[in-house]
Design brief:
2 copies of one chain form a homodimer. With 233 residues, chain A is α+β, with helices and mostly antiparallel strands. The first copy, chain A, folds into 2 domains: 2-149, Sandwich (Jelly Rolls), CATH 2.60.120; 152-232, Winged helix-like DNA-binding domain superfamily/Winged helix DNA-binding domain (Arc Repressor Mutant, subunit A), CATH 1.10.10.10. The first copy, chain A, has helices at 2-14, 16-19, 24-33, 89-92, 114-122, 125-151, 154-169, 184-191, 195-207, 223-232; strands at 35-39, 44-46, 54-60, 63-68, 74-80, 84-86, 100-103, 107-113, 211-214, 217-220. In chain A, the strands form 3 sheets. Chain A has a 4-stranded antiparallel sheet with strand order 1-8-3-6. Chains A and B meet through α4, α5 and α6 of A and α4, α5 and α6 of B. Chain A binds a DNA duplex (30 and 30 nucleotides) through residues 153-154, 183-185, 193-197, 199-200, 203, 215.
Chain lengths: 233, 233
DNA sequence: GTAGAACTATGTTCTAAAACACAAATATAA
DNA sequence: TTATATTTGTGTTTTAGAACATAGTTCTAC
């Protein structure tokens, strides 16, 4: 009983965007169909070619959405932070997933059946527009990303990724350390380069006093320089 | 009077997807707000940084959506064929255009104010879902494109573009000539390579008897080979 | 029809980044 | 703990593709 009440409280506060657009009846339906699932670090959330069934909302943790390309080389397509929605695109396109998702770190995810969401938004213009807006923003980002990843050089791409990570996950209390610890390989897959190049370019940035590194902790020293490198490519 | 009737007929047959989802009242509103505009070959339809105002529907012709990237190097993001909708993403994202659009050849475009479309879809679940589905499909394509353009080699990228053009615009009566005549530069911008490389690789394909070229006419001789080259990158 | 511009073609040079090779350091498990 | 695997770091080699140079060709406009 207490557990259920807690869950209800969780949903209303954790799904702010969607919750506030729903009627009482819809909220009740959502309450009865939403599931909360925990994922361990590096655990798979969904796989390429699977059938999409649920809208996912990341309550806690960090998630990567990625694709395996030519020769199994993996490319991180986007990263998710709390509270963001993911996993719905393929369902709306009536396709299997063309990407996979896995947990960068321990995660709490809320799953809501897509059938329910579709039913809601058919009668709820605000909710429909919410999804239209999310998709439109993501499509704009993807278009920009095509150009950045293909035209910028290694330094520009890595600089861009570092800034992107900072803006996505923020900084620690020291106001400089990026609040996510990625393997060099993930950093490479995010920036479309080999692991060696990510390591080497990171070292160069350290020598140029743009960042400092301590294992996987990356501290941004000169954000202005970093932004400039990202800008000029 | 006759002109108006013609226009009405045009709309109902030319906007099949949207038209059939509207009520009589909505159709009337659409009729009074839609404009038909003609663009000459190479004419600009909209520019980067402009404010999006209209949903555009291509009735006739061929359109490229492109972005200028590092050092003004242009990248074709997607191409539009009749009857497809475009120009709406930025409005929904509440952003200025991040791309530009221009006519590959003489075009007829129907413009419908986005305010009207938004008003329609707030009360029309089918229409909302129609846009959600279009955006979802385009986002999936964009995600795939990031991987293809960054990981495939020049031959694979060009082969992919040729197949893409064939599937988009079809073949001429001979059942082999791709039904669009692009400058080598456009082919390069579509495939993320320099014009020289597009020319060179096209020549190689000719030598390997995969295609033949006659000016801008490209005839596909061995589609299987082309697909294989595209697949393996 | 001619002049100039734009496009196509091909050869050559140069360079960014991948591929490879190997240490060293760190994490994980037995 | 030691052993094993994984990750990080750095130097070297190789290569795909960009950049450059130049010439022939085909549009386009006057």
């Amino acid at each position: 009983m207490l557990g259920k009440n807690k869950k209800v409280a969780d949903l209303s506060s954790s799904l702010p965007d969607i919750w506030k657009m729903l009627t009482d009846v819809e909220r009740d339906q959502l309450r009865h169909n939403a599931r909360i699932i925990h994922f361990k670090k590096n655990e798979l959330i969904y796989l390429e070619d699977e059938t999409p069934k649920d809208l996912m909302c990341l309550f806690k943790g960090k998630v990567k959405i990625y694709k395996s390309g030519v020769g199994g080389r993996s490319q991180i397509i986007r990263i998710i932070r709390p509270v963001q929605y993911f996993g719905y695109r393929a369902y709306f396109a009536r396709e299997p997933y063309v990407t996979a998702a896995s947990a960068f770190e321990a995660c709490t995810v809320c799953l809501i059946p897509m059938e329910l969401i579709e039913q809601f938004l058919r009668n709820n213009g605000d909710l429909a527009l919410f999804f239209i807006q999310m998709l439109s923003i993501d499509l704009g980002i993807a278009d920009q990303r095509v150009v950045n990843l293909t035209q910028k050089h290694v330094r520009g791409r890595l600089a861009e990724s570092l800034i992107f990570l900072k803006e996505s996950y923020g900084l620690e209390e020291d106001g400089a350390t990026i609040n996510i610890y990625l393997a060099r390989e993930d950093l490479a897959n995010l920036s479309n380069m080999t692991t060696s190049n990510a390591i080497r370019t990171l070292s160069n940035f350290v020598n140029e006093r743009i960042i400092t590194i301590d294992g996987r902790k990356i501290k941004i020293i000169d954000e202005e320089r970093l932004r400039k490198i990202s800008r000029i490519g």
